[in-house]
Each structure stands twice: as C-alpha cells, then as structure tokens.
Design brief:
Strand content: 35-45%
Distance between the termini: 14 Å
Radius of gyration: 24 Å
Number of helices: 12
Number of strands: 29
Largest sheet: 6 strands, antiparallel, barrel
Helix content: 10-25%
Length: 498
C-alpha cells in the first residue's frame, strides 16, 4: 500500500558524494587513523560541520578530502550481516493476508495476484534484510519490520557462514530488533554519536540491497531530526545514500567508520530509491537494545499530550517571536501532563533543558526517557514562561504507546489526527458534537476517511472530543463503524482495524 501524502507517497520499505578536492584541500590519510584504536579524529582531520567556524566571517571554506570508504568497508564490512526470514502472514477477514503495514506489500497492491484472496490460514512470506554485529558473542541489531511475523531467521556472515538467529525482542514503535546467534569472537562495529553528525557530513551504508550482499553506497547527511508520519519516537537522519529493499536494518557509518544509524525507510513514488532515505539514530537503537537485553521488552514513557506544529500565524497569536516549540492541542486525563498542570494552548519550549525547535523534537526526547523519570519543561503560557515538572508514566498498550509519542500525526489503531470543532463550525453545520479529521492514514485511510470529514460517532456513541475518540477506538479489537459528515451528507464508514 502507498500512503498518500498529497501527491507524494511515503513508502515504508526495507531500507538499509564525493566532492572533488582542490589544491587547498586538507591532506589527511584516514587509513593511518584506522590503525589507531583511538576514536578521536587526528589533529589534521578535515573540519566537521561543528568545528568549521563561521564561513561568512572567514571567507570560503576549503574543500575537505573525501573519507577513505575503502578502509571503512575493509575494517567494518565483515561485521555487516544478511538476514533471511520465513514466516506465515495472518489472513484478514476476506482471506487476504494482513499485510497492510508490510514494507514490501505497499508497492505491489493492485498488481495481478496481490489482491486475490488467499487461504484463511495465512500465506508463506519470505523476507530479506541486513543487520550488524555489536557484540563479539553474536548480538545483532536490525529493523523490527525485517523480522516481523518471522518463524525462522537466518543470519549470513560476510565469510558465508550461516546461523539460525533468535529474536530477543523487537520494538515496532522505533523499528528496532535485537537478534542473537550462537557464535564467538565475531567482528563488531564501533558506534558513534549522532549528535555530532552535521548536515553535509559524509555517510556510508553497507547492506544487501535486492539480495546483493556487502554492497556499499555513499552520500551525505541531508537533514536531521526528521519526524515521519507514524514514527513519533524517532528523530530520523535523512540522507541521500542509495538504499533499497534488503538494506533495511543495515548500518549507516560516518566518515570515521562509526555507526551513527540504522537504515530503515525511503521516500519513494516508484518503490525504489529516489534520493531520500532515513536512518534511525544509533543512540535511539542502543536505548531500545538495552531494554530488550535486560527486560525482554521495551516500555515506552508517556507524557500524555497531543501536539501540533507552530506556524508564524499561531506564534503571533500566542505572542511568540518565533514559531518554535510544540503547541499542546490536548491533554489526556490522568496523564503525567495533566497532573503537572499542562493545558491546551501551552507551548513547550524546552524539555530537560533541550530546546524544542519543531513539534517533532518533543516525542523523540520523551522516548529517550523511561517511566518514572522527572521531565523539566519550560512552557509558554499567557505571554510568559513558566517551569513545569512532570513525572513520566508507562505506556500500557498500543493505544497508549501511540499517544505517548505525542506527535500530531496520524497515529493509533484508527490512524487519524483530529481536532475539536470550533464554535463557529458547530453553529454553521448545526452539530452538537464531533471532531474534524486533519490527517488520515492507516486503517482510516484504507476505509476512505478523508481530511475535512467530521467524525460524529463510533458504533453509535457520539464523539465529543479527541480524547473520547481515542478511548472509544481503544475498546475496539477489529471492526467499527464511524458515522461521518462529509459536506451536507452523513454516512457510515466501516473500518477494519486489522
């Protein structure tokens, strides 16, 4: 399935520049550095984005010598593995496999053979992906969607040895999974710090695109902290590194050879690479890994707010000089945010001292905490700042986990972002209740729910607020009926939650 974002398609598929130097380029031999076990760059290394200084004041920046990709591949390529999976996809109500969120199936819906019913018992599925070894005794990181529904996972090393892997755990919210194979003295990667990565820095991916093992592709960091629909916990690293089906779960290296991310998704209208790819920052992945190794599962923290992006008009109305921060649209009753006194209309400017530049920054920061943590918030309210302390709670189920991401993007089992009706809208449409759909994805989009629709009721129960809608949806397992007003017409829309 392709999720329509206006005229574009966000395809969540299996994912994982060299500039010419001039006479003024810095002379640096990275291969000599790789012989040194120190992880700090040499004194004569090319300037990074953080240390290059103010180009406007110092004049043109001298081109940097490209990284020694050969040295990176030779040293850390052996720690990159290929992953093959086999399993049975669950059948839906009409006998079709429940592949609505499958990263491969999205590209084939509508083609002959892919919309035909299959046996209710399910259909065999095979998948390929990549991963990398982080511990000599066989601990491996990959993507959660690579091993989803897998009954057997095989790991193939660069020396062509194969091992049956055990899935220690996976976290769909961050798309991170941890595998273990029975082996010793294996090659491992070195992990880096994504915070030190800057836009324009060189990066390298190694993986198995389309099954072509140990393939290396290179590019630069295009952006940082990207918030994607349905991924509230992850501040993605955007790159122009070519990644394709089979790269998913593979490592993204920086110029020093340290892993800074896990290749996870691409943005595509065709199903193949089109210049935009996304990686999960390695610090997020390691945070998830630690929980899986220690507890066998991941418990996400919950602040309990839904937020939306600020624009200049909203900033002006709240008397903010710049549209920075996360605007609180609603506060869940009984949540950490409610107990701390947060209110709709508050703008969260800082979280534990970290500035919130865009709304997507907040859920990523919340996600790096754990239940019970104290969160220090700087909040803008009524034209002045105030300090608020909230104690994070645990996300108890999928609905809570989705809300805990605090992202104002389509989330949860239904997959909609909604807002209350304004008094003017209620009066004009002669409605006593209802919520307006602002974005639609997932189950709602598949059922035909569109932005601008007003959800009046769920299974006959009137909807009076976004929080009540979430509560009603959380009580449903597979199917529900939405009463929707579209223009002057009221219609019932059946929705399968999968």
């Amino acid at each position: 399935m392709k999720m329509k974002l206006k005229s574009l398609t966000l395809a969540l598929i299996a994912a994982g520049a060299v500039t010419a130097g001039t006479a003024s380029a810095v002379n640096w031999n990275p291969s000599q550095w790789f012989q040194d076990k120190s992880h700090s760059a040499p004194a004569d290394a090319p300037p990074t984005a953080q240390s290059s200084g103010n180009s406007a004041a110092s004049g043109p920046i001298a081109p940097a010598t490209a990284p020694n990709y050969r040295a990176i591949v030779q040293r850390f390529g052996p720690a990159v593995v290929g992953i093959d999976t086999e399993g049975i996809a669950k059948a839906g109500m009409q006998g079709a496999p429940d592949l609505s969120d499958d990263p491969f199936f999205k590209f084939f819906r509508g083609l002959p053979g892919f919309d035909n019913p299959v046996p209710r018992g399910g259909v065999p599925v095979h998948g390929k992906g990549s991963g990398f070894i982080i511990r000599k005794d066989g601990l491996i990181l990959t993507n959660a969607h690579v091993v989803r529904d897998a009954e057997e996972v095989m790991v193939k090393l660069s020396d062509r040895r194969e091992f049956k892997a055990k899935v220690l755990g996976s976290d769909p919210a961050t798309d991170v999974a941890v595998l273990k194979i029975d082996a010793d003295n294996l090659p491992v990667v070195t992990t880096g710090n994504p915070a030190q990565l800057g836009v324009g820095d060189y990066v390298l991916a190694i993986g198995s695109p389309f099954g072509f093992e140990q393939s290396a592709t290179a590019g630069i960091v295009s952006a940082k902290g990207r918030a994607l629909p349905g991924d509230g916990y992850v501040p993605f690293i955007q790159t122009d590194v070519a990644v394709n089906p089979g790269n998913s779960g593979g490592p993204l290296f920086d110029a020093s050879g340290a892993v800074v991310g896990i290749n996870s998704q691409i943005y595509s209208q065709t199903g193949g690479y089109q210049g935009v790819s996304f990686a999960i920052p390695i610090d997020v992945a390691l945070h998830v890994k630690d929980q899986i190794v220690t507890n066998g599962k991941v418990i996400h923290p919950r602040l309990g707010v839904s937020i939306q992006e600020l624009n200049q008009s909203l900033a002006d109305s709240f008397k903010l000089k710049q549209p920075n921060g996360a605007l609180v649209a609603s506060v869940a009753p009984g949540s950490a945010a409610a107990k701390a006194g947060l209110q709709p209309g508050d703008v969260i400017l800082k979280y534990n001292g970290q500035p919130i530049n865009t709304s997507g920054d907040l859920p990523a920061l919340v996600g790096m905490g754990k239940p019970g943590d104290k969160a220090q918030l700087e909040v803008w309210r009524g034209g002045k700042t105030l300090d608020v302390t909230a104690t994070l709670t645990a996300a108890k189920d999928k609905a809570d986990s989705d809300e805990a991401g605090n992202s104002a993007t389509p989330r949860g089992k239904l997959g909609v972002m909604v807002r209350p009706l304004s008094p003017e809208e209620r009066s004009e449409a002669h409605l006593a209740s209802g919520v307006v759909v602002e974005q639609s994805a997932g189950a709602a989009a598949r059922a035909g729910v569109e932005p601008g629709d007003v959800i009046l009721a769920v299974n006959g129960t009137p909807v009076r607020s976004p929080d009540q809608l979430q509560e009603l949806i959380g009580k449903q397992d597979k199917h529900l009926a939405l009463l929707i007003q579209r223009g002057e017409t009221k219609i019932f829309v059946p929705v399968s939650l999968g």
